[in-house]
Amino acid sequence: xxxxxxxxxxxxxxxxxxxxxxxxxxxxxxxxxxxxxxxxxxxxxxxxxxxxxxxxxxxxxxxxxxxxxxxxxxxxxxxxxxxxxxxxxxxxxxxxxxxxxxxxxxxxxxxxxxxxxxxxx
Amino acid sequence: xxxxxxxxxxxxxxxxxxxxxxxxxxxxxxxxxxxxxxxxxxxxxxxxxxxxxxxxxxxxxxxxxxxxxxxxxxxxxxxxxxxxxxxxxxxxxxxxxxxxxxxxxxxxxx
Lengths: 121, 110
What we know:
The complex is a heterodimer.
Chain A: E1 3-7, E2 10-12, E3 18-25, E4 34-39, E5 45-51, E6 58-60, E7 68-73, E8 78-83, E9 92-99, E10 108-111, E11 115-119
Parallel strand pairs in A: 2-11
Antiparallel strand pairs in A: 1-3, 3-8, 4-5, 4-9, 5-6, 7-8, 9-10, 9-11
Chain B: E1 10-12, E2 18-23, E3 34-39, E4 46-49, E5 63-68, E6 71-76, E7 85-93, E8 98-101, E9 105-109
Parallel strand pairs in B: 1-9
Antiparallel strand pairs in B: 2-6, 3-4, 3-7, 5-6, 7-8, 7-9
């Protein structure tokens, strides 16, 4: 059974940094692209970043480019999102999602339950 | 403002057939396949349809998808109370080099 468990969320002041983690199990982690997708309170889904299975291809939404960094450790079956210069509009539930193939262009087929990030002074 | 456009909230009665549309452009729906997600209240999204019209294992055949040009649609026949959820379309965007979502359509089953 595919399981994705996010952690690292919390309350952080504007301008500070935070690192999210996603622990994966139930599939061959190193064979699939992974993504972060966020959902602001009461709003829709927004793709944040994606990384191919071998980390050779990485992409970011314009809203986070230059501030967020995605990475993965296939030996540890883990996905990460390092977030710098956080702003109030980064407040959201951050989901870790598994891609359907090695490339980030495959649909996200499994999602974690999310970790809440609140940016406020 | 979402890149993909979906209609506002909708409501229907059990047994009815409903259709949810999703409109995009040549850089996303026009050149890539569309996926649909179902998000039940208080839960994570679930993949409902991929590659325009393919249902993952476990998704009832009451759900169907189609795509034409730069638009796509999700149809639900024989509506049931458990179908009350938000539905999102998504597609890869070649210009943005990333995934784009519709704003979501909240479906209420009366």
